[in-house]
Amino acid sequence: MRADVGREEDVKHIAATAIKTFGGFDTWVNNAGVSIFGEAMDVSIEDMKRMHDTNFWGAVYGTRLAVQHYKSRGVPGAVINIGSLFGDRGTVIQSTYASSKFALHGFTESIRMELEKEHAPVSITLVHPGRIDTPYNEHACSYLKKQPAHYMSMIYPPQAVAEAILFAAEHPKRDMYVGSQAKIVAVLGRFLPRFMDKLMELTMYRTQHSDRPSKSKADSALYHPGYGLHERGTNKGWMRRNSYYVKMSKYPLASAAIAAFVGAALWAAVSARQKD
Fold it and tell me: Where, by residue number, does the polypeptide cross the bilayer (predicted)?
């Protein structure tokens, strides 16, 4: 069905259609999103508000409707919000996108605590994707002269995000990071903020666009649906086949055991060399 998640009435219609068709639902994923590429002082306030309608308010509408549905029926359910590594750490050129994801991360953490306090049987998961090979850049509204792109960087397949979502739907998880890239950025941004400021100033201007001329803002998906039904983008970079970090998150005890074994083996090897 067609819907604009930036309109609460449309989100209510999505929920009503699911209930009418399937009798209800036990998993709700807030995945719709779009970006704007341009420096903070260049992007119009109108475009900023429109993007927040989709990225933030769309997720708020969906989360509240899903929680109300689970509570009214007395059944357990899951809400999975798709955040971003830029919701953990701001970046240049995508300030509007980062701000919408920071808002979503804060809302997700807050409603999770409120539901836990009242012992509601609802799991709230925040997924933190790194750079993913979808038409994200092709759909973006660009104020740049060159076309937005994941350029010269590590890129993960959309299946890795789907794997994280499916696991969170079946196993309550607080957070799921898609790619070590996302986790590293979050950790460094928290503990070494000034270092990350300089690193992003140095690298992110030249790795967020291609050499091709940028499409017109009117061709973006900011105010209307994106083109076609394409799963992949036109990105050129280091394409990963999956996310080992997602797989490790699914089996934390086994991953910890492997890490401990590798650490012990390295320690034993170093000790043996010192004795020689």
Answer: 251-270
CB count in 10 Å sphere of residue 82: 25
Residue ranges of E strands in 83-242: 122-129, 141-142, 146-148, 151-155, 175-178, 209-213, 236-239
Q: Hey, which residues are catalytic here?
A: 97
Q: How far apart are CA 158 and CA 104, in angstroms?
A: 21
Of 65, 244, 240, which is closest to residue 156 (Cα–Cα)? 240
- Give the single-character DSSP code of 227: S
Q: Is the CB of residue 250 less than 8 Å from the CB of residue 184?
A: no
pLDDT by 10-residue block (mean), the chain, 276 residues: 94 97 97 96 98 98 98 96 97 97 98 97 96 90 90 85 96 93 92 95 89 87 83 70 78 63 62 63
Confirm if 201 and 92 have CB atoms less than 8 A apart: yes
Would you kindly state where each structural domain of the chain is located, as residue ranges? 8-242, 252-276
Distance, CA of 84 to CA of 20 (rounded, Å): 32
CA-to-CA distance for 175 and 119, rounded, in angstroms?
19
Q: Is 21 exposed, middle or buried (0-12, 13-18, 19+ CB in 10 A)?
A: exposed
For 264, the token pair is 């012990």
CATH class of the domain whose range is 8-242 = alpha beta
Give the closest residue to 183 by CA, choosing from 156, 157, 165: 156
